[in-house]
Amino acid sequence: RNKRPLWDFSSPARSPPEAPPSAQEPSLAVEFRRAELMHELRERYAEACRDIMGFEQPPSDSVDRWLLEQLAQPRGKDAQDADPLLPKPRIASTSNVLVRELLAEVPLRCKRRGGQYLNGKLARQELDRYCASAERWVRRLPESPRRAQLAREVAELRQWLKSPGAAPPRGRAEAPERCPLRIKLEELN
To answer: Are the C-beta atoms of residues 42 and 63 closer than 8 Å to each other?
Structure first.
């Protein structure tokens, strides 16, 4: 930097750049309609998550993450005619952000506390929820060798949960890294 400041605040104020000639003037009616359409988009997304994926509700903030991905996309020369909020609406079909959010819910996104998996009874409850969700997912899949393999894995998890080694510790709590339930949660995710 040669000891020069990054910003020179002593220069005279400049006027803001002019908007491109094709840009629309802000309008309450346009923004209200855009808000209505976004609400409808969120409702359709939630409905698709229920009907196609079997979720009770869509992953939290997944639509917002997708919108942020939209805003982060480079804008080309044709961007002047595009909607400022959704410049590339077809990106949803190839969005890694959206795919990652949806796959994290299959069969169940396990709860954490402070970035750490749960221990003891709470971990047991989470494993029971995970197993029940996995069973529902396997039933939804079409018959195939992969479905049969997944069904065996879910049955093995159910058997493990019935075994004495999967019982929550009684009395003095174990160190979190030695809790068998927590270890199983970490393996599944």
So the answer is: yes
